[in-house]
């Protein structure tokens, strides 16, 4: 069956009713986002990692845009087992909502604070990459990438390898299980590893060069439903579309 582009009818109810509906972990989800990684990648990864049942809505943007909360994507529609439809907007808010629902924010307020710190630090890295490398003129891209690897990425690596060692070098930033922090950093590194300028040097991220970060990547990738999502044709297509979109 081909995916529908019709947006579901959202449940309008009091905050108490919606909060009750939001408690369920047996919901199904529909994601509205473009056929690119972009701001949809971590949302997709979280849905996959959590083993949630989810699908993508077909995009008919001129029709859908005015019906979304902020006229931008991603938007996630959560269909709860009790029959409510919850509308989730803003990628960071969606990521945190899914993380709370599927216990990926640590086990107490302090751990949640640590998760948030690592999350936002990785966000800084991806923004610098977007600005300096993705946004570079094609003829300057190799030089910009080399400078980014040497000046920005190497600093991130050295700081994060230290933090990971302080947590016991166990493949996790916080405690001894995967959190949003791990998923965010893995998504960030995967993006940098995907978008390598043609003819450029390899990204200095590997099992040998960045062993503690690599353990985080391996721990996330051991999750069966995440691994199966990453192997899927759709995920491969998103890699290809993202490279093509930014001319890598
Ligand atoms: N702050 C928003 C930004 C969303 C956003 O800018 N989405 C872009 C795609 S990455 C979009 O919907 N562009 C189409 C449009 O503006 O019509 C978020 O993080 O979700």
TrEMBL record:
Residues 27-106 form the GST N-terminal domain. It holds the Pfam family GST_C_3. It comes from the Eukaryota. One of its GO terms (biological process) is glutathione metabolic process. SUPFAM superfamilies: GST C-terminal domain-like, Thioredoxin-like. PANTHER family: GLUTATHIONE S-TRANSFERASE (PTHR11571). This is Glutathione S-transferase.
């Amino acid at each position: 069956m081909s995916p529908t582009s019709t947006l579901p009818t959202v449940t309008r109810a009091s905050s108490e009713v919606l909060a009750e509906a939001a408690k369920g972990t047996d919901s199904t989800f529909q994601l509205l986002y473009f056929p690119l990684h972009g701001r949809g990648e971590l949302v997709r990864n979280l849905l996959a990692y959590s083993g949630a049942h989810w699908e993508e809505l077909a995009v008919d943007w001129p029709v859908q845009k005015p019906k979304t909360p902020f006229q931008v994507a991603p938007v996630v529609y959560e269909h709860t087992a009790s029959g409510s439809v919850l509308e989730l907007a803003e990628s960071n808010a969606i990521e945190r909502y899914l993380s709370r629902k599927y216990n990926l924010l640590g086990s107490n307020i302090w751990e949640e604070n640590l998760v948030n710190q690592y999350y936002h630090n990785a966000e800084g890295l991806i923004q610098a990459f977007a600005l300096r490398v993705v946004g570079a003129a094609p003829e300057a891209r190799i030089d910009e990438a080399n400078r980014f690897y040497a000046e920005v990425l190497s600093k991130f690596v050295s700081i994060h390898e230290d933090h990971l060692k302080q947590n016991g070098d166990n493949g996790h930033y916080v405690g001894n299980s995967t959190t949003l922090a791990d998923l965010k950093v893995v998504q960030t590194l995967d993006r940098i590893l995907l978008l390598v300028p043609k003819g450029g040097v390899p990204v200095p991220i590997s099992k040998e060069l960045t062993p503690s970060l690599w353990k985080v990547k391996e721990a996330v990738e051991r999750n069966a439903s995440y691994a199966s999502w990453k192997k899927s044709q759709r995920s491969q297509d998103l890699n290809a579309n993202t490279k093509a979109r930014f001319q890598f």
